[in-house]
Amino acid sequence: MIEYLSGKLASLTAATAVIDCGGVGYLLEISLNTYSAIQTQTEVRLWVHEVIREDAYQLYGFYAPAERDMFRLLLGVNGVGAATARMMLSSLSVDELTSAIVAQDDKMLKRVKGVGAKTAQRIVLELQDKVSGTALAITPATAVSRSKEEALSALVMLGFPKAAADKVLQQLDASLSVEELIKQALQKL
Prior knowledge:
single chain, alpha+beta, CATH 2.40.50.140, DNA polymerase, domain 1, Helicase, Ruva Protein, domain 3
């Protein structure tokens, strides 16, 4: 029912954002990618997904409609709940997720905390056709280098903030090996 919320960013943590819309504060659960995108802003617009249950009314906020669309696709997979979908969108960008699904790379999906082998395979199986024919599909011009994806995952596992690691990796030559990308990124972080 709520498409988006736009207003003053009243409060922000890595997991939640409170948006003041006309004197009413809306608490939205967010991904780390959304957090990185809005952390320096005072006025924001977040695209919303609502979950209404007997015992809870939850709002999930996303910086871009494509991220919300991927969240909704993930929720449609048996065994993937809102917490897992949000964790996946915190660990990987929409482009990385789409690329992994299209390439049937369940190993990349298994790297996400809480995603096991069967769930990763189910995600690939159920979403491959859905993401390959939509706006979420990656064109060659926007495809992220596989080496950079692996280097980014390794740096995040080492404890570096995803946004900072991604920024450093974007400055490096994409033709480098994963090991070389990590070594050079560690020198700059």
